[in-house]
Amino acid sequence: MSANPRTGLLSGSFLGLLTTQLLTAVNDNVFRWLVIGIGKKLVEDGSGQEGSILAAGTACFVLPYLFLAATAGYLADRFSKRDVIVACKIGEIVIMSLGIYAIMTQSIVFLFVVVALMGAQSALFSPSKLGCIPEILPAEKISAANGLFGLTTVAATVVGMAIGNWLSDRWRQDPQANIALCAAVTIGLAMVGTGFSLLIHRLPAANAQRRFPFNTFAQTIRDLRLLASNKAMFRVALGIVFFWSIGSLAQMNIDQFAAESGARLEKDKIPLLFGLVLGVGVGSILAGILSRGRVELGILPLGAFGVAASSMLLFTVRPEIFGQEVVINANLVWSCFLLFSLGCGAGLFHIPLQSYLQHRSEAKQRGSILAASNFLTFSGILIFSGLFFVMRLPVGDNAEPLLATRSIFLVCGLMTVPVLVYILWLVPQASARFLVWLASLTIYRIKLVDSHHLPERGGALLVANHVTWLDGILLLMVSSRPVRMIAWGPHLQRRWLKRLVESWGAILIYPESESNARAFETARVALENGELVCIFPEGGLTQTGEMQSFRPEMMEILEGASAPAIPIFLDELWGSIFSFERGRFFWKWPRKIPYRISVYFGAPIDNPTDVDEVRDAIEALGPVTESS
Question: What would the pLDDT profile of 533-555 be if each residue is shown by its tens digit?
Answer without folding.
Answer: 999 888 888 777 788 888 888 88
